[in-house]
Amino acid sequence: MNxxxxxxxxxxxxxxxxxxxxxxxxxxxxxxxxxxxxxxxLGIAKAARRGIMTEILPYGEGRAQGEARLVELCLQRKPDxxxxxxxxxxxxxxxxxSHQGRIINIHPALLxxxxxxxxxxxxxxxxxxxxxxxxxxxxELVDHGRILAQIPVRIKESDDLxxxxxxxxxxxxxxxxxxxxxxxxxxxxxRKDGSR
Length: 196
Ligand code: GRF
Known about the structure:
Blueprint: E1 2-8, H1 13-23, E2 29-36, H2 42-49, E3 54-56, H3 63-77, E4 81-84, H4 93-98, E5 103-107, H5 119-126, E6 130-137, E7 147-154, H6 161-184
Parallel strand pairs: 1-2, 1-4, 2-3, 4-5
Antiparallel strand pairs: 5-6, 6-7
Helix pairs in contact: 1-6
């Protein structure tokens, strides 16, 4: 069975949606741990209430310290995959390269459009008619790497930013666990050149 570690920075609604699907048996995974770079992340209390091991990474001391603790945790708890669910830190190239092809992220826009910390807001301000959600493997660049799945979300005339955010989050909660399942079941084919 796959073991996943989930990294968060905030509310943890994406984490919750994944944990719900593990609990219901739709996603066959074990959670090695949930970690946050922020001590005040709401998701940490939610994970702890579910009986999952949680950890605050010491990013306050610097990225090197945060990542060093993450490396230690990975060695102890041996997750197969690192699932970023609203984790708002950029990982160092050396961390990414030593976990190549095993870090997955969700982004609230249709990459390569609107990368960065404000994907929903930026799409809204740009006035696009369709935005969406992307699940991708993480590489050394920000919000970049092999796209595993995307789901479009139309922006309606009647929308305001809050309504759009709600629909984006609903789309995230639908797409993330399904994409993880496909990936873990080996149902995402390798690229034609054999790379991920
Ligand atoms: C999500 O929109 C995710 O795509 C973005 O940050 C948000 C995290 O929300 N990177 P939550 O903590 O999962 O509720």
